[in-house]
Design a protein that fits this description.
10 helices, Arc Repressor Mutant, subunit A, five-stranded mixed beta sheet, elongated, D-Maltodextrin-Binding Protein, domain 2, 296 residues, alpha/beta
Amino acid sequence: MAIDLNGISVFLAVAEARSFRVAAENLGVTRPAVSQTIRRLEDRLGVALVQRTTRSVSLTEAGEQLYQRISPAISEVGMALDATADRDSAPSGLLRLAVSSIAEQFISGPLLARFADAFPAVQVDVTVTDEEFDIVAEGCDAGVRLGEVIDQDMIAVPVSGDQRQGAFAAPSYIERFGKPGHPSELSAHRCIGWRPAPHSAPYRWEFEQNGREFDVAVDPQITTNDMWLMIRTACAGGGITFGMEDTFRPYVESGQLIPLLQDYCPPFAGFFLYYPSRRNLAPKLRALVDHVKQWR
């Protein structure tokens, strides 16, 4: 059966407006033209799609089923047409991102600052979160997370190289309490832990020995969801803390913190910019993807 695109467009307008008059106004045609088009489509399909009374318009069961099936497809077609039309246009509009708080290379400043310089018409809205986050459901264009937690149906572009986690403490803490020689000894130390949300359990510190991965459920004396509080407290001698090497590197280089248990902290895949699998990207997101690729 040949597809009646005009009939489908008119049907969608009526289904969404639940009014022949409003549908006609939205389409820029007359009300009789809308009525005739719907009637021709119904005759073609051999089934009633719309119930009309003097006061209201509603869909029949067949009409509702047709609407539910074709509405997403038509929306996707519209997105593809818009992407094609905007292919060579300058990136603009609001770009919403959900970014892990430990994605240091992405949120440290320079990457986003250079992107803003290159694309002044793009407004970037960044939500920093470590909770489980569905970027599609939350209306975000993309996210930045460790590769191991990104869904397989997403497109992922590397933002960083391999990463390592590690334990860190201030020289003043080590002078008072010494260094743990093995992760199992952490239970005898004051620890500064991290949790992603108020009702979440503290993060279990992850290590590896002889190719075997294991984690340690430390009992933190201080727990927070704020990395900077962890760092400042550790620098003040408040205990041993744990996190990404990139985050702690400036404090190690300045001598404020000392890395611990490095033999038990192997590298792993780093951070990725990820977004839903679509054939056509909005210019604003395509610009960010290209920027990230060049940044690395």
